[in-house]
Write a structure and sequence with these properties.
The protein is α/β, with parallel strands linked by helices and 353 residues long. The protein is 38% helix and 17% strand. It contains 13 helices and 13 strands. The strands form two sheets. The chain has a seven-stranded parallel beta sheet with strand order 3-2-1-4-5-6-7, sandwiched between helices. Strands 10-9-8-11-12-13 form a six-stranded parallel beta sheet, with helices on both faces. Helix 1 packs across helix 13. It comes from Petropleomorpha daqingensis. Keywords: Transferase. It holds the Pfam family Glyco_trans_1_4.
């Protein structure tokens, strides 16, 4: 099968997004070497993409339109003229002879526009409209598939949950202290982009109000600013420490050594940090939202809208004589994810013949 992959974010974008693109491509090349795989990347990143690909049998096509959505709408269909299928992210090519599959990470903006800036909402707005031209809509969880079907009924018959996995780069890294100045077992950990939806401000209020953190037992927050800003904490208050972005080695160390991982997000389509934390053996308390119930049904949950509930859940765990075991997480391997996607595309290609 000949497949064109939308690799716009392979070089530039959020770290989690870049790692997902890289994992898709590397797994497909390894597991299905008989397929002819090509990837569309921004022309300005062509040299870096070639370096990423190394000697892999991957054809790279430069694209020049900006932003990402415009590139997918106008360029991918033309580039896919000799392909059996084109797999894009968020946006769907307007026209293509090939089977059109789009991976939509979430349609959260449809239900919660208040979580996003005007610029973000402008980017998201065309996603469900363009998806009407897709042959199949892929997403990560059954919870997100249900949301897509609920908020956009015209897509209900097309949506398929295929899963996501932890990037191989994270699995294979050796943990290394990132130099955060914290002792093993003596800190709380929160990981995620710093925006309103991640609910970090309410988490800070909760741990300070309940006196759950101290300079020698702080809340450590990992993540970069993105979207609607959070208030944050007093830079001089050593009870809450913002580390910014942390590499895979450092992140793995923080997951493995934290006393408790807390994810207070108001909504998620998937929740990669939950999976990373579980694979690292971290005890955790999580927001009571559908995606987290699906990923980690055995975790302890709290109402993310309630400062008191967040504080109580953290206090309950810290009051135990020993840390709770990390819950089992239902996460497939990348080979399983890519296998499901390929099977879905092959089914669509066969139906056309």
């Amino acid at each position: 099968m000949k497949v064109l992959f939308d690799a716009y974010w392979w070089v530039e974008g959020q770290p989690s997004g870049r790692r997902v693109v890289d994992s898709f491509l590397r797994t497909w090349l390894a597991d299905w070497p008989e397929d002819e795989l090509s990837a569309a990347v921004p022309a300005r990143h062509l040299d870096q993409a070639r370096a990423f690909a190394g000697g892999a049998p991957l054809t790279l096509h430069p694209v020049r339109a900006r932003p990402h959505g415009v590139s997918v709408l106008t360029e991918l269909g033309r580039l896919a003229r000799d392909a059996d299928a084109v797999l894009s992210q968020n946006y769907t090519p307007l026209r293509a002879r090939a089977v059109r599959a789009v991976f939509i990470h979430d349609l959260m903006f449809d239900e919660h526009p208040e979580f996003f800036s005007r610029v973000e909402r402008a980017y998201f707005a065309g996603m469900p409209w363009s998806a009407r031209g897709a042959d199949v809509v892929l997403t990560s969880t059954a919870a997100e598939a249900a949301r897509i079907a609920r908020v956009r009924p015209r897509l209900a018959g097309k949506v398929r949950p295929v899963g996501l996995s932890v990037p191989e780069a994270f699995r294979t890294r050796v943990a290394k202290d990132p130099g955060a100045g914290v002792e093993p077992g003596r800190f709380l950990l929160c990981v995620g982009r710093l925006n309103v939806r991640k609910n970090v401000d309410r988490l800070i209020d909760a741990v300070l109000a309940a006196d759950l953190v101290r300079p020698d037992f702080p809340l450590v927050v990992v993540g970069e600013p993105n979207g609607l800003a959070i208030r944050g904490a007093d830079a001089d208050d050593r009870r809450v420490r913002f580390l910014g972005g942390v590499d895979d080695e450092g992140l793995k160390w923080l997951y493995e050594q934290c006393r408790l991982f807390v994810f207070p997000s108001l909504d998620e389509g998937f929740g990669l940090p939950v999976v990373e934390a579980a694979l690292s053996g971290a005890p955790m308390v999580l927001s009571d939202i559908p995606a987290f119930r699906e990923l980690a049904p055995g975790a302890a949950f709290f109402d993310p809208m309630s400062t008191a509930a967040i504080g109580a859940a953290i206090g309950d765990e810290l009051g135990r004589p020993s840390p709770s075991p990390s819950p089992e997480v239902a996460v497939p391997s990348w080979s399983e994810v890519v296998g499901r996607i390929r099977a879905t595309l092959a089914e669509q290609v066969a139906a056309r013949r």
